[in-house]
Design goal:
The complex is a heterotetramer, with two copies of chain A (140 residues) and two copies of chain B (83 residues). Chain A contains three helices and nine strands; from the N terminus they run E-H-E-E-E-H-E-E-E-H-E-E. Chain A has helices at 13-21, 57-72, 103-120; strands at 4-7, 29-36, 40-41, 44-53, 77-83, 85-88, 92-100, 123-129, 132-135. The longest helix of chain A has 18 residues, at 103-120. The radius of gyration of chain A is 15 Å and the shape is elongated. Chain B is built from three helices and five strands. In chain B, strand 3 and strand 4 (60-61) form a beta hairpin. The radius of gyration of chain B is 12 Å and the shape is globular. Classes of the chains: A alpha+beta (140), B alpha+beta (83). Chain A binds chain C through residues 12-15, 17, 21, 25-40, 89-90, 101-103, 106-107, 110-111, 114, 140, and chain C through 12-15, 17, 21, 25-40, 89-90, 101-103, 106-107, 110-111, 114, 140.
C-alpha cells in the first residue's frame, strides 16, 4: 500500500500507523492528525460533505509534501491519506502520520504537513446544509 | 495550437462543464492566456480577475513565466478546501 | 471503557480514537501522540523495556492531566492510555488523543499532555540492553 | 505512630524491598521525616540528599508544609521516565 494516497474508501488509523512504523525500528514517537467531518460549520448544520480533487495533481502535491517533510524535519517516515467523494458526519477525511525518533520532530512535521496540505493540494469541499450545497472557499 | 482547459469544483458548476478544448496562438504568454480564458468563459472572468483562483499548466502551478505549449493541460483551480 | 487507563495489554489506536470521538459530532480535528519502543537509546541497542507504575497515584495523575487539558485548551475530549509491564521493541507504550473542533487546539493540548505526563506521572522505564538492565533516570 | 513507606523502580532495587512500616513520632515534620528515612534506609541517603527523588504522601506530591498523620502512605519516587 502506498504511503501517500487519495481514495474513496475509509481508512484504518491503526493500519496506516503500522504501515508508517514498518519503515524503522528506531521510531519512538508517532504523531497523527485525523481530520473528521463535523456537524457544524460557521453556525450552519452540516448534513454531509463531498470532496473533489484534481486527479494526478493532488497526489503529486501530497507526495511533494511528504518529500519536503522528510527533507526539512528530523523524521523517519510520513504517510498521508485523503478521502474523496461523499463523506458523512463523523467520518474520517484526512490522516497525516509523522514518525520520528523523538516526539518534537514528529509534532512539528505533522502540524506543518496538514497546513501545507490545505495550502497547496487541489482538493475542494462541498458542504451540504439544509439550505443547499456550497463549495467551501476559505481555509478554516 | 490546441490546449485542454479543465474546471474544478465551483468553477465547473459556473461553466457547466468539466473541460474544453481551446485553440490559442503559438507562443501565447501566460497573461494573454488569462485574457483569452476570460473572453472564452465570461462566467469565470470575475474569479480570474479577483485572483482568487490559481492556474495550473500540466498539473504544476503556473505564473507569468510559464510557457504554454501545444497539447498542454491548463486547469482553473478555485481556492482549496481539503484537509 | 475508561478514557484514561494504565494497562498491561496493548491498545488499538483506532478503537481509542473512536472512544474519544464518541464524545461529540462537533469534533473536526483529532491529534494522537503514540509513543513506541525504539531499538536504540543513547547509542545503546535496546532488547526490551519494562514499565513500572505507582498504582493509584499514576492513574490519578493521568486523570488530572486530562482535566487540566479540558480546562485550559479549547478541546472537546482527551484520552490517555499508558502500558505497564514488559514491552518489546516496536510495540506501543503510550497514547494521548486530543479531539477539538479545530486542529490547532488539538495539537497544543496533545503536545502539552505528553510533556506533562512525563513530568508528573509516577511511571518508570527499565531498559534491557545486552549489557544488562538499567532504570532510566532522565527525561528524553 | 506508624506509617507505610513504599519504594519504586531503582529505589526498590537499592533497598531490596517494596515497602516497609516505620514508627515515627507524632506530629513529625516533613523535613524530620526525610532525616529519619535517610537514617533508616542508608542506601537511599544520597538520593534523598541529591533531591533527585520526590516524596509523596497518600499519593500526592509532598513538600515542607505537608503534615504526616498516623497510617499515612509515604512513597519515595525516583525521577519519572514514562511516556
Amino acid at each position: 500500500m502506498d504511503l501517500v494516497r487519495i481514495q474513496k474508501q475509509d481508512f484504518s488509523v491503526s493500519e496506516e500507523i503500522e504501515l508508517v512504523k514498518a519503515a524503522s525500528k528506531s521510531i519512538g514517537g508517532v504523531v497523527a492528525f485525523l481530520g473528521t467531518a463535523r456537524d457544524i460549520s460557521k453556525g450552519e448544520e452540516i448534513v454531509k460533505l463531498d470532496f473533489e480533487h484534481y486527479p494526478g495533481m493532488a497526489e503529486k502535491k501530497l507526495k511533494e509534501i511528504r518529500d519536503a517533510a522528510l527533507k526539512n524535519f528530523n523524521i523517519i517516515e510520513m504517510g498521508i491519506v485523503h478521502r474523496t467523494g461523499a463523506i458523512d458526519i463523523g467520518e474520517n477525511i484526512v490522516l497525516i502520520i509523522a514518525a520520528a525518533q523523538h516526539r518534537n520532530d514528529a509534532f512539528m512535521a505533522c502540524e506543518w504537513a496538514i497546513t501545507e496540505l490545505k495550502r497547496i493540494t487541489p482538493i475542494w469541499k462541498r458542504e451540504t446544509t439544509k439550505k443547499g450545497d456550497v463549495w467551501v472557499e476559505e481555509h478554516p | 495550437m490546441v490546449i485542454k482547459v479543465r474546471f474544478f469544483a465551483m468553477l465547473k458548476t459556473k461553466v457547466g462543464k468539466e473541460e474544453a478544448n481551446l485553440t490559442v496562438p503559438e507562443n501565447i504568454s501566460f497573461d494573454k492566456l488569462r485574457d483569452m480564458l476570460k473572453k472564452e468563459f465570461p462566467a469565470l472572468a470575475e474569479f480570474i480577475d479577483g485572483k482568487s483562483i490559481m492556474i495550473s499548466v500540466n498539473q504544476e502551478f503556473a505564473d507569468k513565466n510559464t510557457i504554454i505549449k501545444d497539447g498542454d493541460e491548463v486547469a482553473l483551480l478555485p481556492p482549496f478546501s481539503g484537509g
